[in-house]
Structure formats: structure tokens, C-alpha cells
Design brief:
Arc Repressor Mutant, subunit A; 0% strand; Tetracycline Repressor, domain 2; mainly alpha; 202 residues
């Protein structure tokens, strides 16, 4: 039996800071928006120095990645619950169910959705979030009756999802009042139908 490595006091302290800072930063974002998050403010809330915060995360982007990992996990749970609810429906209907759940997540959890997809488009993802995204793509492909091992199917479902994401993005932006969220949600069916009419045949 392999003996577990005992963490040093410094490592335990850094782990404690990471856990407390992630929860506190997420609370700030959800209550006040992403613009309210700052290293100085977060460190003050935790009663630590900015240097200690950076020792735990590297920089503020490290904190953002930790929040995003939690947001991605919450999104994953939401989409998977919708797929379970769809049961043995036809592939097209299962994909629609996932699309509608994604739309509903963006409407009901706008600040989590914003952190994931709008805050920093060039922010490098952490490994956990990358794995979650890959898992969601595979889930979508399988739900649509595709083969996750097929490059053609992967590209098809990525493009299909990009169209759904674009609709969600336009409908959920407070600066764009031309698209009603209720109307936009109904168009998910049309987008999926249009995509499936061009479903790739290997």
C-alpha cells in the first residue's frame, strides 16, 4: 500500500487560501459582477496579503480560472440533467433539450455564463475546465447519434453548437434589445433542424 504524502504546513496554508478565495471570489462575481473582482479587494476580504493570494494562484487570472472551473461544473450538471430528462427521445430532440438547457442556464445564471464565455476570450483554460468541455462535446455528439471518434461528427456538432451559442449570446446581452429571450429560445428548434438536414454521412 502506498503511503500518502503528508502536505507541508505551507502547502496546507496555500490549499486553504485557494479554497477560501475561490468561494469568496465566486460570491463577489455573483453578487456584484465580474468587474467587482480585484486582487486587492479579495485579499482584504480574506484577511491576507495580495502576495499570499498570488502565491496560491499565480495572479488574478488564476482566481478566475478557479471560478470558471466551478461554473463549468455547474453548467455540466445542468445539461446532463436535461439529457437524462429527455430519456430515449430521438437524437434531434435530445440535442434540442441540451440546447434549451444551455439557454436556460445563461438566462438563470447570467454571471456564471458571462464568466465562462464572455469575460476574457483569451484566458487560458485550466485542465479541469478543458476536460469538462471535452466531456460536454462528447455528450452532445452521443446525444445526437454521432460518433465522438469521428472528426467529421466532431466538427459538425461544434458548428451546430456554435450557432446555438451565438443565439444565446445575442439574446442574453443587456446591450442588445432586438431579440426577445423567449422568442430566441424557440429558434433553437429551427437551428437544430437546419443542422440535422445537413447531418454528415460517413
Amino acid at each position: 500500500m502506498t503511503k500518502e504524502k503528508t502536505l507541508s504546513r505551507r502547502d496546507r496554508n496555500l490549499a486553504d487560501i485557494r479554497e477560501r478565495a475561490t468561494l469568496a471570489a465566486e460570491r463577489i462575481v455573483l453578487e456584484k459582477g465580474a468587474g467587482a473582482l480585484s486582487a486587492r479587494g479579495l485579499a482584504k476580504d480574506l484577511g491576507i496579503s495580495v502576495g499570499s493570494l498570488y502565491n496560491a494562484f499565480g495572479d488574478l487570472n488564476g482566481v478566475v480560472r478557479a471560478i470558471n472551473a466551478r461554473c463549468a461544473d455547474r453548467l455540466s450538471q445542468h445539461l446532463r440533467a436535461a439529457l437524462r430528462e429527455a430519456g430515449d427521445a430521438a437524437p434531434r430532440d435530445r440535442v434540442v433539450a441540451i440546447g434549451e438547457a444551455y439557454f436556460d442556464f445563461a438566462v438563470s445564471e447570467p454571471r456564471r455564463w458571462y464568466m465562462l464565455f464572455e469575460r476574457d476570450s483569451d484566458l487560458q483554460l485550466d485542465v479541469k475546465t478543458q476536460h469538462l468541455q471535452e466531456g460536454l462535446l462528447e455528450m452532445l455528439i452521443r446525444a445526437g447519434g454521432g460518433d465522438p471518434g469521428s472528426d467529421l461528427h466532431r466538427q459538425f456538432f461544434l458548428l451546430l453548437w456554435a450557432s446555438v451559442h451565438g443565439l444565446v449570446s445575442l439574446a442574453c446581452r443587456p446591450s442588445i434589445a432586438m431579440i426577445s429571450p423567449d422568442v430566441a429560445r424557440s429558434y433553437i428548434h429551427e437551428l437544430v433542424d437546419a443542422g440535422f438536414r445537413n447531418y454528415p454521412r460517413d
